[in-house]
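Input (structure):
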């Protein structure tokens, strides 16, 4: 049975880096889904499809999204192509939202495999400082939010992302296969 991996983690935990690395793997069974987001195409590091609010609303009305949600004053979605990929026997990784895990589970049931990235506070601080997108105050706020990040340990596999990217990719592959 095909599975959808719902990858979650606090900002700066390495989701985008992990997804980029997974795209480079020679695994014909695993796809990394792009998201549709109402933000500029060059904003952040994520490989996404930029849509205006109007485009997003139109596609949502036309039923072109498998899942959609709001977060951080933006609209996010994964397209119905996700269902085609799953029906074709492929496994798909989605940069998911922990606030919308219930919605994803309702749609995909047992095919959904939630994975929560965990990063220690020291490593997270270094990564946030290195990317240079936030002020010192914003970094502290992100660290405080990350400290409150409590994955559902009963229903979520934990992937420690303190080590190298290669280690994380290997651990990810071992978790899902």
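Output (sequence):
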């Amino acid at each position: 049975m095909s599975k959808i991996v719902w990858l979650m983690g606090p900002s700066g935990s390495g989701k985008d880096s992990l997804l980029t690395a997974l795209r480079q793997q020679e695994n014909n069974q695993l796809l990394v889904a792009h998201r549709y987001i109402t933000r500029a195409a060059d904003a952040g590091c994520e490989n996404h499809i930029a849509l205006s609010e109007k485009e997003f609303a139109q596609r949502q009305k036309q039923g072109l999204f498998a899942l959609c949600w709001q977060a951080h004053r933006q609209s996010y979605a994964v397209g119905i192509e996700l269902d085609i990929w799953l029906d074709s026997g492929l496994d798909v990784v989605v940069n998911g939202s922990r606030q919308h895990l219930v919605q994803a589970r309702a749609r995909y049931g047992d095919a959904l495999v939630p994975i929560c990235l965990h990063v220690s506070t020291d490593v997270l601080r270094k990564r946030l400082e290195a990317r240079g997108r936030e002020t010192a105050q914003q970094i502290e706020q992100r660290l405080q939010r990350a400290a409150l990040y409590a994955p559902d340990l009963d229903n979520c596999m934990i992937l420690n992302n303190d080590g190298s990217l290669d280690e994380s990719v290997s651990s990810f592959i071992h978790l899902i296969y």
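Notes: Residues 4-170 form a domain with the Rossmann fold fold (CATH 3.40.50.300). Strands lie at 4-8, 30-32, 35-37, 48-50, 65-71, 74-79, 91-95, 112-118, 157-160.
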